[in-house]
Specification:
Order of helices and strands: HEHEEEEEHH
Number of strands: 6
Distance between the termini: 115 Å
Structural class: alpha+beta
Shape: rod-shaped
Radius of gyration: 44 Å
Strand content: over 45%
Length: 221
Amino acid sequence: MTHRLSILVALVVALPAGAQLSRMADPPAVERDPAENLYGVSLFAVRPPEPKTFKIHDIVTIIVNESSTQTSEQTLETTKETEGNASIGATLSIEDLLDLRLRESSISDLELLRYAAEREFEGEGEYERTDRITDRLSATVIDVKPNGVLVLEARRFTASDDETKTVILSGNCRSEDITQQNTIQSNQLADLRLEVKHEGDVSRAASKGPLTRFVEWILPF
């Protein structure tokens, strides 16, 4: 009888510990795809593609579609009037002064200076610029941040006769924003930097000459 009681007590004590060990040994729950049973059976159930992993030096195509419009208008009108005069109420006699005597001369209320000036200024300026860039650039992954953010950079240089064009684009993006066709829109890039530089006859013809810049420098208003 005593032996049976000992076995029963041992089983009662061992049961919670065994249940706890069973819970600790359970694998972590895996989120199951609700459409898993439909794949291969339904024509409308398509298994989503596996997310792509990017590394440094991978190539991503950036679709550039940027437009900007800048308009500025300013009007300035000023008027300034200045008027003044200077006169001497009494003067010393020159003849008496040569004899070392101080005596008032007959000249009095002598007007030395009278001036008047008036200045008016009217200025008007208007600035309007519209830019639109549409392009496709192949960018290189130059860095992968610890949180998975990709740093992209694209450079293109084209030359035709004396005309050259340089395009530099850089920005950060998430790998999940890149499509299965390996493309991404430029408006999905963070810290976007887009630089387009033209050099050649066309660029020089559209620029201000040195004489114009000098006149604008000495006459800023």
